Amino acid sequence: MIYNRVMDTLEELQLHGKTVFTINDASMLMKKPKKYVSKILSSNRKVKRIERGLYFISSSGGDNLYEIASQIVFPSYISLFAAFQYYSVTDQVIKKYSVISIKRHREINLGENIIEFRTMGRERFFGFNRVQNTYIASIEKAILDSLYLNMPSFSYVKEAFDLSRQNSLLNLKVLREYAHRMNSGSVNRKLSKLLHEDDEIRMSEGN
């Protein structure tokens, strides 16, 4: 089937979970040259440009920045402060969405928000899940990524750690297993500090 109408093309892309799509994706569906498709897309109000050759389908109910940010580079996932906000373990309202990837990519301004990319080696690229069309770090991995990259500062990581435990979101066994896989002395030292301070607080509350 040839999708000549832009709206038909957008509906087909969404049907296959492609809120973020390339000019090639649209060109193949429409069976039209990329130059022509690019011109058509640029005039459509539902389509927003991320960067050259890459677009997303805007929603009247508000754009899902998590979904958009995690699909710009493959493979990648959302982590750090953005993940803390996703799990509601910080009171901070973020404007910067941090993406972990094994590939380098320039920072992107998307409206009032910023999408930044942080590289990590393949051996430390794990601990994330796909939730609908969003790739997001588990809370355990988000904490460890933050300790590894020193982003955000330790006080915010501690806040996220404490709230994660209070809300029963954190699995300490998984946290320790992931820390071992990170193979970082710095991460282990900072994690020990987090766990030690948490134990001291619980002991004092018990008294």
From TrEMBL:
Superkingdom assignment: Archaea
Name of the featured protein: Transcriptional regulator antitoxin
